């Protein structure tokens, strides 16, 4: 079945939990025992309505404080698709969670309270969707019931958002506006009669019709995860390179170059379990064998010989910082780029984006938790990489703290 | 006509995760319970490393209160695929006095498994334990990472988890720490059953409708067995049941069902209004039962 990964961000006040609850409820994805648990706990807390966040705030600390600390994953399915929602809190102190959610998403839902319009949180969410180049963005203008389903309110918010969108550097991004009432279910899973002036799809209909595979395809990248050598008599000389394909598909017979050694070969076979194929598309975890016996190990990347990316011992990237210990010039981190790891030193910080996204601070000397800024790195050895705008897999990396081993940040090259 | 691979996104993701485990860790192990999720993991691992063999052993933490059908199935699978199976017994930890057997109406060895698991991790120096937990099962599990770091006491620090971005999995740990890995995190119960149907994967007979001596407590159907504490007024009746989830006898409730093929099971689950873990007695102890167990090192 087709899987669609969606990211949502926003606070409880926007009705995000209600929207998710609605989607679950209307697609009959909420089982009786889970619904009863929500009813029981909502009543216990003295609420007049069902608080769906009680279903997603899975940790004791979250339920105690009534806040979402961490990304929650919510699953529902229709006859057509399986949906995975990464539900993230929208406040500035959760920027890292929003970035994490958006990094997995093929589509994103930005909620706006019809009474409040575009607010700082909207900017933040949209900026992150831009930076991460999430192709499909749904702007759901919620609580339309509280503004008498007034078309003008919706149009005004749309116009405000379009102004924001006009500054976007990601022209191919598709932004869709839908007026909804999550509480009443208007335009969530079904179209409503309450807003006859709206001729578009409901949120669910829109998601059902989405074809994420139509996303513009880029140069094929095949980072090698591990080498399969069966050491069985019938596979005596077998060397299969296991990995996942990113970008355009790979075909048997394709001339390929191995990075970083720059040795060349041809694809002899593309295998998945006990079957051989002529071609495999992006997202396929396959095993590839090559015509000649060359040295390939984990961390190497197979690319088509006419699509070799550039290489350098330096790189510049937008970094979202995710660690309590600030990023400062001179510090060393390990960069994990695809399946490869290389030591990197922070050369300088070019700028830090201000939290209200009104501008950049180029005098900043550090990047602290949840901040996004442009950082220059020096690398311990040559790295072949893409710009993130050209190729997501080849243009992204994480920074690993060499002492604590934690994932301290994420970088988008370019 | 050229033959193009049709990719199943969830399967591909799981295979990718298995390969990262083998590449990033020295001594991984697959936690095998004999339930449908761990059986699915075995199939995925087979695919990930074909034509090579599965490059890690299986570990079964045996409570001694298993359904005999599960053990029979486990041994057959291991034999057929030529797998390396390690079994460690909760009974040994009880005999050594490390843990005390629970007594009374709701007694179970479910909680005691954690000690045996942590001992086995130490004994074999496992640095990655692959498990079949899914995020849709339970709300604390919904917060799990794919690579979930545990300290040398096996504890889960749920408030301080590593961010996971794109496909970039960070398996770097200190000596003594270990990582719990969940390749089917993003699968739902229905995804697992559909996969079992599509792949013709064999599963233990207790998943299919059968006659069983049972009694009803708290609205759940319990197996009548010498391992399961029963009050005198809890009347044993033969019922037509099957199991939706398989733990040991003391913590898994049956459901009334006549589904005796995978096809019928899939149909049944599609219309079911009760969640899978609704039949898990171990989850009913409190609102935070799973989170508490995970903090202590449960998988």
Automatic annotation (TrEMBL), chain A:
Report any one BP term from Gene Ontology: sulfur compound metabolic process
Pfam families to which the protein is assigned, alphabetical: GTP-eEF1A_C, GTP_EFTU
Taxonomically, the superkingdom here is Bacteria
The answer on whether this UniProt entry bears the keyword 4Fe-4S reads no
Q: Tell me which InterPro entries the record gives.
A: CysN_GTP-bd (IPR041757), CysN_II (IPR044138), CysN_NoDQ_III (IPR044139), G_TR_CS (IPR031157), GTP-eEF1A_C (IPR054696), P-loop_NTPase (IPR027417), Small_GTP-bd (IPR005225), SO4_adenylTrfase_lsu (IPR011779)
Q: What is its EC number?
A: 2.7.7.4
Tr-type G domain sequence ranges = 1-215
Q: Per UniProt, which keywords does this protein have?
A: ATP-binding, GTP-binding, Nucleotide-binding, Nucleotidyltransferase, Transferase
Q: EC top class, in one word? A: transferase
Keyword ATP-binding recorded:
yes
First and last residue of the signal peptide: none
Q: Name one GO molecular function term.
A: GTPase activity
Stored NCBIfam families: CysN, small_GTP
This chain belongs to the protein called: sulfate adenylyltransferase
Source organism of the structure: Leeuwenhoekiella polynyae
What lineage does the source organism belong to?
A: Bacteria, Pseudomonadati, Bacteroidota, Flavobacteriia, Flavobacteriales
Automatic annotation (TrEMBL), chain B:
Which GO terms fall under biological process for this protein?
sulfate assimilation
**Pfam families per record:** PAPS_reduct
Which superkingdom? Bacteria
Q: What class of enzyme is it?
A: transferase
Q: Which UniProt keywords apply?
A: ATP-binding, Nucleotide-binding, Nucleotidyltransferase, Transferase
Q: What is its EC number?
A: 2.7.7.4
| Gene3D superfamilies, alphabetized | HUPs
GO molecular function terms noted in the UniProt entry:
ATP binding; sulfate adenylyltransferase (ATP) activity
- The UniProt entry's coiled-coil ranges are none
The Phosphoadenosine phosphosulphate reductase domain, residue ranges:
27-253
Similarity field: Belongs to the PAPS reductase family. CysD subfamily.
State the name under which the record lists this protein.
Answer: Sulfate adenylyltransferase subunit 2
Q: What is the lineage of its organism?
A: Bacteria, Pseudomonadati, Bacteroidota, Flavobacteriia, Flavobacteriales
């Amino acid at each position: 079945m087709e899987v669609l990964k969606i990211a949502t961000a926003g606070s409880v006040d926007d009705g995000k939990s209600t929207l998710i609850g609605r989607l679950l409820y209307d697609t009959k994805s909420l089982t009786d025992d889970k619904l009863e648990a929500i009813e029981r706990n909502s009543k216990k807390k003295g609420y007049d309505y069902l608080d769906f966040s009680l279903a997603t705030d899975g940790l004791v600390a979250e339920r105690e404080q009534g806040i979402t600390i961490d990304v929650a994953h919510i699953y529902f399915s229709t006859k057509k698709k399986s949906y995975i929602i990464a539900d993230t809190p929208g406040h500035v102190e959760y920027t890292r969670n929003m970035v994490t959610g958006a990094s997995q998403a093929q589509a994103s839902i930005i909620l706006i309270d019809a009474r409040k319009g575009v607010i700082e949180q909207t900017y933040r969410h949209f900026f992150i969707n831009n930076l991460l180049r999430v192709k499909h963005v749904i702007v759901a203008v919620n609580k339309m019931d509280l503004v008498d389903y007034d078309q003008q309110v919706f149009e005004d918010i749309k116009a405000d958002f379009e102004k924001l969108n006009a500054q976007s550097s990601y022209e191919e991004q598709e932004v869709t506006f839908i007026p909804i009432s999550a509480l009443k279910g208007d335009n969530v899973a079904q179209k409503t009669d309450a807003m006859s002036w709206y001729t578009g799809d409901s949120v669910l209909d829109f998601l059902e019709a989405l074809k994420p595979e139509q996303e513009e395809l880029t140069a094929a990248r095949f980072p090698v995860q591990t080498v399969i050598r069966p050491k069985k008599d019938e596979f005596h000389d077998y060397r299969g390179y296991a990995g996942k394909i990113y970008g355009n598909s790979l075909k048997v017979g394709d001339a390929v170059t191995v990075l970083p050694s720059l040795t060349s070969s041809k694809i002899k076979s593309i295998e998945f379990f006990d079957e051989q194929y002529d071609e495999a598309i992006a997202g396929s975890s396959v095993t590839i064998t090559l015509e000649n016996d060359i040295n390939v190990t984990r961390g190497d990347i197979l690319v088509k010989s006419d699509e070799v990316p550039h290489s350098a011992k330096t790189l510049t990237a937008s970094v979202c910082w995710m660690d309590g210990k600030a990023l400062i010039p001179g510090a060393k981190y390990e960069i994990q780029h695809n399946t490869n790891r290389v030591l990197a030193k922070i050369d300088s910080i070019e700028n830090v984006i201000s939290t209200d996204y009104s501008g950049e601070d180029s005098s900043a000397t550090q990047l602290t938790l949840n901040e996004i800024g442009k950082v220059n790195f020096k690398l311990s050895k040559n790295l072949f990489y893409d710009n993130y705008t050209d190729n997501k897999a080849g243009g992204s990396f994480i920074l690993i703290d060499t002492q604590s081993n934690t994932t301290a940040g994420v970088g988008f090259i370019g | 006509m050229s033959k193009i691979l049709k990719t199943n996104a969830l399967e591909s993701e799981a295979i990718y995760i298995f390969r990262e485990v083998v590449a990033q860790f020295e001594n991984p192990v697959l936690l095998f319970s004999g339930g449908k999720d761990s059986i699915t993991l075995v199939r995925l691992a087979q695919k990930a490393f074909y034509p090579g063999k599965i490059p890690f052993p299986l570990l079964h933490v045996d409570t001694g209160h298993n359904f005999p059908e599960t053990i029979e199935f486990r041994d057959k699978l291991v034999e057929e695929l030529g797998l390396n199976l390690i079994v460690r017994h909760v009974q040994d930890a009880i005999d050594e006095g490390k843990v005390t057997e629970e007594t009374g109406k709701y007694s179970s060895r479910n909680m005691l498994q954690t000690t045996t698991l942590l001992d086995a991790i130490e004994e074999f120096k496992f640095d990655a334990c692959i498990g079949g937990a899914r995020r849709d099962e339970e709300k604390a599990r919904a917060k799990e990472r794919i690579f979930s770091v545990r300290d040398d006491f096996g504890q889960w620090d749920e408030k301080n988890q590593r961010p996971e971005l794109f496909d970039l999995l960070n398996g770097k740990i200190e000596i003594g720490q270990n990582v719990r890995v969940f390749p089917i995190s993003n699968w739902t119960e229905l995804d697992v059953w559909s996969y079992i149907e599509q792949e013709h994967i064999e599963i233990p007979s207790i998943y299919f409708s059968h006659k069983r001596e049972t009694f009803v407590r708290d609205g759940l159907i319990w197996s009548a067995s010498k391992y399961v504490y029963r009050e005198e007024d809890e009347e044993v009746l033969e019922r037509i049941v099957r199991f939706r989830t398989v733990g040991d006898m003391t913590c898994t409730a049956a459901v009334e069902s006549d589904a005796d093929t995978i096809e019928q099971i899939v149909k049944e689950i599609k219309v079911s209004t009760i969640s899978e873990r609704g039949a898990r007695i171990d989850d009913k102890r409190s609102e935070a039962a799973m989170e508490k167990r995970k903090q202590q090192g449960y998988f």
